Each structure stands twice: as structure tokens, then as C-alpha cells.
Amino acid sequence: MAAKIGTTPAVLFGGCMTLLVVTVTFFKTRNLIPSTLKDIHSPEATEPVS
């Protein structure tokens, strides 16, 4: 792709697409993970599940 449109536009396009994917993934999965460090490091989070 870089050969067709040039190096700089290809890098900018790739960077924008990466940010788009990360943003969409964040908003779709933010309820699946604890949102604070307190939630992550609570004693309940470190106990093994039986």
C-alpha cells in the first residue's frame, strides 16, 4: 500500500486505523474489566476460585 500512496500517507492511515480499532475495542469491552486499581487489587480479586 505504501508504494501506491506514499510512505507518509500510509503511516498516517495505519496510525489512524490503529487508534480507531483501540477506541472501538475499549468502548465495547470497558464493562468486562474493573475500571479502578482498587477493584483489581481487592482481596476478593486475588482469592482462587473453587
Description:
With about 50 residues, the chain is mostly helical. The protein contains four helices and no strands.
Compressed to H and E, one letter per element, the order equals HHHH
Give the averaged pLDDT, no decimals: 80
The total of beta strands comes to: 0
Going by helix content, strand content and strand pairing, the class is: mainly alpha
Determine the number of helices (DSSP H or I, runs of at least 4 residues). Answer: 4
**What is the helical fraction, as a range of percent?**
over 70%
Contiguous runs where pLDDT drops below 50 for at least 5 residues? none
Q: DSSP strand (E) fraction?
A: under 5%
User: What would the principal axes of the Cα set say about the shape?
Assistant: rod-shaped
Largest sheet entry: none
How far apart the termini lie comes to 51 Å
Specify Rg, calculated over alpha carbons: 19 Å
- Kindly give the count of domains: 1
Keywords: Membrane, Transmembrane, Transmembrane helix
Protein name: MFS transporter
Transmembrane segments: 6-27
Topology:
Layout: H1 2-5, H2 7-29, H3 37-40, H4 43-46
Kindly summarize this structure in a few lines.
This protein is an all-alpha fold and 50 residues long. The chain is 70% helix and 0% strand.
Task: Give the key terms.
MFS transporter; mainly alpha; single chain; transmembrane helix; membrane; 50 residues; 70% helix; transmembrane
